[in-house]
Amino acid sequence: MEQGVIIKGISGFYYVKCGTNVVTCTARGVFRNLGVTPIVGDYVTFERHASGNAQINAVLPRRNTLVRPYVANIDILGIVVSASVPEPDWMLIDKLLISAQCASIRPVLILNKIDAASTATKQFMADYFGFTCLNVSAQTGQGMEELKDLIGSNIFCLAGQSAVGKTSILNSLLPNADFAIGELSRKTERGKHTTRVAQLIPFGDGAILDTPGFSFFDTEYLTTEQLDACYPEFLQAQGCRYSGCRHISEPDCGVKELLTCGKMSTARYQRYVIISKENEMRRKHRYD
Ligand SMILES: Nc1nc2c(ncn2[C@@H]2O[C@H](COP(=O)(O)OP(=O)(O)OP(=O)(O)O)[C@@H](O)[C@H]2O)c(=O)[nH]1
Ligand SMILES: [Mg+2]
Ligand SMILES: [Zn+2]
């Protein structure tokens, strides 16, 4: 039995990196019965058969799993935001921040295309109190040294909307890489989903995962406490009159006081309320 890490999966075939080799494996039928699908980032054991086929036997316990993008065993989630086009979807960004933190993955915000930045987007980034934010440009190379330092020996996953420049960043970090990048649609100024599958690429003592862009996303079911723990802003709050305060319509709410004294952005708070209500809906449906 050998062990390796899945670097890519395409229609039932898994590419497993084992030392310097990459072995193409299928997964045993038993996975389907157990409802376990091996995913990129998984450590697996596999066996080579005399026929030349190789088969994954087991997925080793995961340190963490993300659903969007669907990858495992990540140290840092690099949430890539475009400083120009496509226009950032801040709700998607907030939800990605939440999902990373709930999976005990450190999120960092990477503002790419800083060479073509709109002032509005730069201002919105200031709303993200308490998170690491890096300004970079895959085009000019600005900020790439800092990004390299940040990646270090970590497993670093790039995530975000289509055409924010995830693959461009990867190409810029790897001197000889030439992964396909895509234009934006001229009419809609949106991405064309150039990267189709997640891929793990060794990088120094760590690795980078490039993933397909997406625009729709729901967080896992969360309690108010779990959700609140994802907002570093709330740490500055003085406390709420009611325990179990949802910070929506309750009187003497410490979180709402943050808004009046400018310690939390109104836009981020408004999205918090939407996410909180979505979670409440899901909680209700769970017990129906
Ligand atoms: N001005 C500018 N354009 C950039 C920069 N980085 C990427 N782009 C452009 O943005 C477009 C999309 O880049 P990609 O790297 O394909 O974006 P992606 O996030 O990988 O997109 P998907 O694979 O579809 O999810 C391309 O036209 C790039 O040339 C940058 O730093 N500055
Ligand atoms: Mg891409
Ligand atoms: Zn409150």
Report what the structure shows:
This protein folds into 3 domains: 2-59, OB fold (Dihydrolipoamide Acetyltransferase, E2P) (Beta Barrel); 65-210, 3-Layer(aba) Sandwich (Rossmann fold); 224-286, Probable gtpase engc, domain 3 (Ribonucleotide Reductase Protein R1, domain 1), CATH 1.10.40. It is an alpha/beta fold. Helix 2 packs across helix 8. The relative contact order is 0.12. The strands form 3 sheets. A 6-stranded mixed sheet has the order 10-9-8-11-13-12, sandwiched between helices. A 5-stranded mixed β-barrel has the order 1-2-3-5-4. The longest helix is centred in the C-terminal third of the chain and has 21 residues, at 266-286. It is 26% helix and 25% strand. It is globular and about 70 Å long. Strand 4 and strand 5 form a beta hairpin. The chain contains 8 helices and 13 strands. The chain has helices at 30-34, 90-102, 119-125, 144-151, 166-173, 224-228, 254-260, 266-286; strands spanning 2-10, 13-18, 21-27, 43-48, 54-59, 65-66, 71-72, 76-82, 106-112, 132-135, 155-159, 199-203, 206-210. The chain binds guanosine-5'-triphosphate, magnesium ion (MG) and zinc ion. Residues 240, 245, 247, 250, 253-255 line the site of zinc ion.
